[in-house]
Amino acid sequence: MVSKAQIKHIRSLALGKFRRQHQQFVAEGHKIVEEMLLTGGFKYQLYISESQTENLSSVIKSASYEVISEKVMKQISQLTTPPGVLAVVDFTTHNYELDDLKSEISLILDGIRDPGNLGSIIRSAEWFGIQNIFISADTVDPYHPKVVQATMGSLFRVRLMEADLITLINDAQTNGFQVFAAVMDGKSVYKTKLTTKASFLVIGSESHGINKKLRTLIKNPISIPSYARGSLKTESLNASVAAAVLLAEFRKYGD
Fold first, then answer.
1. Structure pTM?
2. Are residues 59 and 169 in the same domain?
3. Is 111 exposed, middle or buried (0-12, 13-18, 19+ CB in 10 A)?
4. Contact by Cβ (8 Å): 28, 86
5. Strands 105-110 and 132-135: what pairing?
6. What pLDDT does residue 208 have?
């Protein structure tokens, strides 16, 4: 039976300060919880509402879980319509060494504020084989409920790390890494020699772009040219769309 203290604790994880304090977050829904279980390696507590016990996949059925009432599920769910499958998952802490990144391209996210955008970027990153994603301190919490939902499980298969981006980019370029950045006035990505070895791609927010201090450091600014017709056209691409387009180009023309 779930205690009042447990309910209070799970509800508190809707707020970032408590997620950081307890180093836990909530993942909800059959698909996302199943992806977490299939990926493996996570410490979790799983709760299933009474109405869902007959609708579970074999993966979830084989996991350890506690059956709770619909009333309790509504109390702990972070969604308007609870799907009836909820896991409290412990954070996984990742560290890195630049030498370990030399065989691949990694992603740097600067100031991405929209949870849906961040979730979509993480999902695209997994699709294109990106293992390491570095985020700035002012990027939205990757364990925000809307981010977790938008990743559709990809969150469990990438390595998310908060970093001082100025230090990271300086160190990377000093050690021979190529750092590319998506900016409006950069060289066309279709005319740029790309590499997926020892490289980083920096994506900034669609509202403000990349931090000016970072922009001055980066030696390979690139852009996605617009082919829109007429004087009235979209000012910029959605950050998640831009990330997907650029990553596709890296895979097409990279090593």
1. 0.92
2. no
3. buried
4. yes
5. parallel
6. 78
Q: Is 246 exposed, middle or buried (0-12, 13-18, 19+ CB in 10 A)?
A: buried
Intervals of the chain under pLDDT 70: 230-235, 253-255
Q: Which helix (H) or strand (E) holds 93?
A: none
- Residue 219 tokens read as 């030696």
pLDDT tens-digit profile of 74-121? 999 999 999 999 999 999 888 899 999 999 999 999 999 999 999 999
Residue 204's DSSP bridge partners are: 110
Q: Look at residues 57, 83, 240 and name the one whose alpha carbon lies nearest to residue 154.
A: 240
141 DSSP 8-state letter: P
Beta carbons of 91 and 24 less than 8 angstroms apart: yes
Distance from the first to the final alpha carbon of the chain: 54
Residues 239 and 122 in one domain: yes
Q: Is the domain of 119 the same as that of 149?
A: yes
Q: Do 238 and 113 share a structural domain?
A: yes
Residues 151 and 218 in one domain: yes
Helix H or strand E segment including 49: strand 44-49
Q: Which domain holds residue 236?
A: 98-253
Residue pointed to by tokens 């160190």: 171
The β-bridge partners of 205 are: 209
Those residues with Cβ within 8 angstroms of residue 115's Cβ, 6 or more apart along the chain or in another chain: 140, 144, 145, 146, 147, 150
| Domain count for the chain | 2
Pick the last residue of a domain from 72, 90, 108: 90
